[in-house]
Amino acid sequence: MRDVAALAQVSIGTVSNVLNNPDRVLPSTRERVEKAIAQLGWVPNQQAQQLRAGRGRTIGLAVMDVTNPFFADLLRSAQDVLFDNGFHATIGDADNNPQRQETILRTFLEQRVRGVILGPIGAQPDEVGELTKARIATVLVDRVAESVQCCTVGVDDHAGGRLAVDHLVETGHRRIAFAGGPISLKQVQDRLDGSKQAALEGDAELLVIAVPELDIAAGRQAADELVLMAPETRPTGVFCANDLVAIGLLQGLMAQGLSVPDDVAIVGYDNIDFAAAAAVPLSSIAQPRTDLGRTAANLLMAELADAEAGVAHAHQSVRFTPNLVVRESSAPRR
Predict the structure, then answer these.
(1) Domains and CATH numbers, the chain
(2) pTM of the predicted model, to two decimals?
(3) Three-class DSSP labels, the chain
(4) Where, by residue number, does the polypeptide cross the bilayer (predicted)?
């Protein structure tokens, strides 16, 4: 600003007025200052100005895996709401690594972002408490939990697991497998628990095929395990913890000569766009991923508005109910 003021032969206060209150400056003076800014190539640091005023416009978004289409859609819908409200987002990808998630959240804390939307790995991280102590509004997404610290938005994954296995039982399967992992992820554990309950009530066996990640490679690994089983003991239906695992399973089974759904029926989870476009269109438990993102962002905006008005914010826990989308991969057995 000093350089601009010197080149335009005005005071630093005049430069500040051109940037923040241009109507207070004569047009000729304003033009001289703007030319000096352009000549020097100076870009005002709006973030510093906002932090100095205590009114930052940055929101931190962090999820466990941005390459997963489920989280990509969730992030986009959240960003749309933030953009419409005059905020911009900085995105952190934890890459399914708790230590990396911790680093991302500490970076958000150091940068004094205005708010955080977090799709956490495992249990609620300790850093959430640090964020709220620093008066950084925080919302957990893809997580249903009563929390005195922050709002949460999620889906009833237990019900989703039940839906998937109930469907397989209803279409004639009694040997069923659950493929997913790591089991330590709450979403995976909830889907598995729902599966177990449905299998028990449907008088079906449930085999758990634990895989290290929720990706296509893990699905192919699960296919390798299934192919090695004797046909008379091999599960005839598989519920996968997400659609990426289901796509990998489908690819692996077909590559090794098994037919879907005649030899093995498959149900995925998330209902990403790729599910309907698979070689055999995948049945899937649909999560309202765009609603999750929008709801999380709207809850955050409400909390920020309450803070601006000096009103105590009442945290909410919003739970969506998933639904089953049936396609060819789980058609009734012939």
Answers:
(1) 2-44 (no CATH), 57-156+289-321 (3.40.50.2300), 157-287+324-330 (3.40.50.2300)
(2) 0.83
(3) CHHHHHHHCCCHHHHHHHHHCHHHCCHHHHHHHHHHHHHHCCCCCHHHHHHHHCCCCEEEEEECCCCCHHHHHHHHHHHHHHHHCCCEEEEEECCCCHHHHHHHHHHHHHHCCCEEEECCCCCCCHHHHHHHHCCCEEEEECCCCCCCCCEEEEECHHHHHHHHHHHHHHCCCCEEEEEECCCCCHHHHHHHHHHHHHHHHCCCEEEEEECCCCCHHHHHHHHHHHHCCCCCCCCCEEEECCHHHHHHHHHHHHHCCCCCCCCCEEEEEECCHHHHCCCCCCEEEECCHHHHHHHHHHHHHHHHHHHHHCCCCCCCEEEECCEEECCHHHCCCC
(4) none
